[in-house]
Specification:
- The protein is of the alpha+beta class and about 110 residues long.
- The chain has one domain.
- It has four helices and five strands.
- The two termini are about 20 Å apart.
């Protein structure tokens, strides 16, 4: 697991639920859609990238946890280096492994 510091300010297009109606789309259509519709949701990301030339990322809510926030970074629009690594720690050792496995189980993911 890595802790990062992103550029300040980070300019992003918000696909968070409160802003979707202005785009004429619902959360169900964009965030909660099935994987079979990924091609259509990618078009929204592409449109944001092409129409918002200063955007460095897209922000959206997690499909599995509505309180979580996700970022898809546009690497070519970030400064070099794109972020500062503040620290890292392995996820497969000690208490982090226990936390990770609890998260995997709570999300109903397949455990390997």
């Amino acid at each position: 697991m890595v802790r990062l510091r992103l550029p300040d300010p980070l300019r992003y297009v918000s696909f968070h639920t409160p802003y979707l109606p202005r785009l004429g789309i619902t959360r169900t259509q964009l965030i909660d859609s099935l994987p079979a519709f990924d091609g259509q949701t990618r078009l929204w990301s592409q449109a944001a990238y092409l129409q918002c030339g200063s955007a460095q990322a897209i922000g959206y809510g997690s499909r599995r946890d509505d309180s979580a926030r996700c970022l898809m970074l546009f690497g070519q629009r970030l400064p070099a280096p794109p972020f500062e690594i503040l620290g890292d720690e392995p996820m497969a050792i000690g208490s982090r492994r226990t936390e990770l496995l609890a998260l995997v189980r709570s999300l109903g993911l397949h455990e390997v």
